[in-house]
Amino acid sequence: FALAHAHIGFRYGGLGESALGRPSLLKAYQLRNRASDAERFYIETLYDRDFSGNLERERRTLETWAESYPRDPSAHTLLAGLALSSTGQHELAIAETEKAIALDPDRSPAYVNRAFNQLLLNRLDDALRTVRLAAEHFAIDRLLRLLELLNGIRFVLDGRFVGGRIVDGRL
Question: Which residues sit opposite 166 in a β-bridge?
Fold first, then answer.
């Protein structure tokens, strides 16, 4: 159940309700030794990011995960979408998404993270190319993930994305 608690905490954070996700992240962290190695990396990443606030340890965990599981795109996707993007390292984030896409071109979060970081660098044309590339890979139901990108664009344009976090989660 550790992974289920981690997913709940992560989803709350994605909705701009990190405080509601903190108890689930704590529970996941307490149960992490019952999880697989990859799941433990994921749990520790989320705990460091949204519970303890230790962003340096979050990044180290993701880098260790990527080194330990070189064919797993998840660590690269999360490194780009969480650790690097939130600390303003958008070029490095884009490079990590490219690694994730090379490992598995059929995973939509990497495209979302890539386009989002391109937008943060004011590269609208590149972001649109990324969205078009993603559209070539996904059926319409999987494109719903890209709608998250559009919401992210709204947060940036409305000035509600500050310091790598959504300030006001209301749409």
Answer: 161
CA atoms within a 13 Å half-sphere pointing along the CA-CB vector of 135: 9
Residue 20 CA, distance from chain mean position: 18
Long-range contact list for 59-64, CB < 8 A, 24+ apart? 59/83, 59/84, 59/87
H or E element at residue 165:
strand 165-166
- How crowded is the C-beta side of 118, counted as CA atoms within 13 Å? 20
DSSP assignment letter at 161: E
Q: What backbone torsions phi and psi does residue 89 show, to the nearest 5 degrees?
A: -95, 65
Q: Name the nearest CA neighbour of 149 among 50, 56, 14.
A: 14
The answer to whether the predicted template modeling score (pTM) of the entire model surpasses 0.90 is no
pLDDT one-digit tens code per residue, 107-141: 878 998 998 899 889 888 898 888 888 877 765 44
CA distance readout (Å), 30 to 5, 6, 44, 57, 155: 10, 11, 10, 17, 33
Which DSSP letter does residue 33 get?
G
Rounded-to-integer distance, Cα 2 and Cα 58, Å: 18
